[in-house]
Automatic annotation (TrEMBL):
<feature type="domain" description="Methyltransferase small">
    <location>
        <begin position="130"/>
        <end position="271"/>
    </location>
</feature>
<dbReference type="InterPro" id="IPR007848">
    <property type="entry name" value="Small_mtfrase_dom"/>
</dbReference>
<keyword id="KW-0489">Methyltransferase</keyword>
<dbReference type="InterPro" id="IPR050320">
    <property type="entry name" value="N5-glutamine_MTase"/>
</dbReference>
<protein>
    <submittedName>
        <fullName>Methylase of polypeptide subunit release factors</fullName>
    </submittedName>
</protein>
<dbReference type="GO" id="GO:0036009">
    <property type="term" value="F:protein-glutamine N-methyltransferase activity"/>
</dbReference>
<keyword id="KW-0808">Transferase</keyword>
<dbReference type="InterPro" id="IPR002052">
    <property type="entry name" value="DNA_methylase_N6_adenine_CS"/>
</dbReference>
<dbReference type="GO" id="GO:0032259">
    <property type="term" value="P:methylation"/>
</dbReference>
<dbReference type="InterPro" id="IPR029063">
    <property type="entry name" value="SAM-dependent_MTases_sf"/>
</dbReference>
<dbReference type="GO" id="GO:0003676">
    <property type="term" value="F:nucleic acid binding"/>
</dbReference>
<dbReference type="Pfam" id="PF05175">
    <property type="entry name" value="MTS"/>
</dbReference>
């Protein structure tokens, strides 16, 4: 059943917009584009809440995304937005593989933001270069995990596997540290294309494969920075944060011993946020290591971040694991 659509403009009040969107009414914007952005921001403020319980918080976030997603704009056949003072969105829509038609304003703004990151790039201090993320690929704006991989004692490595490479930033770090060959993998076609673009500039000898977890063979070093929270992903960017049923963490640990060369190391980069939220215990993590036939050689912790709120106590660690 097609959702009910109402044509709206600058006279629509935020409270009424939230009420209609909560009832499943699509709000098709036909007015000044900056005014649509202001309305969306006002709707977002009215929906803002942060329940203490993690599951209620996630539920509120899903509801917020659903309601805000009811404010729509029309992308024309030429991939333009025919609204006063609308930006040129063609390149952003093309890069995100978007199509003409009614599109949530939140989604369009996400495309524009991703396009800006892709053009400007994200400066990575440990790399001395910029990484250019693609739409739907997690941008390395937070770099404590990158710094850990850049600083960890490097064993004698001829071949390294970077599992779940994303933008390719960790593969580029390993190549800059002198690893002769890095094979980066990802299951996402968008991530594979993004990593290839970045590594073509930063580490031409690196290979990028579209595969689930490990490539064939054994390597002296395995690196993996899986999503840090067990839980279902509801968007492509969610997939960089949430690991359904800890699938990637489990798969990496289960395959590490089989893919490690003699004397090699597996580097698992993981936050303790899941532990702070009561979603996993430290004992469970250590049990997973032992069950996979791995021992902890060392653990390196990133310096605390200067943040407030629930993540103020979070610690990001690089676990050095051996067979």
């Amino acid at each position: 059943m097609e959702p009910r659509i109402e044509i709206v403009g600058a006279d629509l009040r935020p409270d009424m917009a939230v009420r209609l969107a909560s009832q499943g009414v699509g709000l098709l914007w036909r007015d000044d584009f900056p005014a649509a952005r202001r309305l969306l921001a006002a709707m977002s403020r009215r929906l803002a809440s942060r329940p203490a319980d993690f599951y209620r918080y996630r539920q509120s976030r899903r509801n917020r995304a659903r309601v805000l997603g009811m404010l729509l704009v029309e992308i024309g056949p030429d991939l333009r937005i025919d609204l006063p003072r609308a930006p040129d969105v063609r390149a952003a829509v093309e890069e995100a593989h978007g199509r003409p038609g009614r599109t949530p304003l939140t989604e369009l703004l996400g495309m524009l933001s991703a396009h800006e990151w892709r053009v400007k790039g994200v400066p990575v201090e440990a790399l001395g270069a910029r990484i250019h993320p693609h739409y739907g690929v997690f941008a390395p704006t937070r770099q404590d995990y990158v710094d850990l991989v850049a600083a960890a004692p490097l064993p004698d490595v001829r071949l390294a596997f970077d599992i779940g490479t994303g933008t390719g930033v960790l593969a580029a770090i390993l190549a800059r540290r002198g690893v002769p060959l890095v094979v980066a993998t990802d299951i996402s076609p968008a991530a594979v294309a993004c990593a290839r673009d970045n590594l073509r500039r930063l580490a031409p000898r690196a290979e990028v494969l579209e595969t689930d977890l490990f490539p064939a063979g054994r390597a002296d070093l395995l690196v993996c920075n899986p999503p840090w929270l067990p839980g279902s992903a509801h968007s492509s960017l969610d997939a960089a944060v949430f690991d359904p049923r800890s699938r990637m963490l489990t798969g990496f640990l289960a395959g590490a011993a089989e893919h490690l060369a003699e004397g090699g190391e597996a580097w698992l980069v993981l936050s303790d946020l899941a532990e702070l939220l009561g979603l996993r215990t430290r004992e469970d993590l250590l049990t997973r290591f032992a069950a996979a036939g791995l021992t902890v050689a060392d653990r390196l912790d990133a310096p605390p971040r200067r943040v407030t709120g629930p993540r103020a106590e979070e610690v990001v660690s690089l676990w050095r694991l051996r067979r």
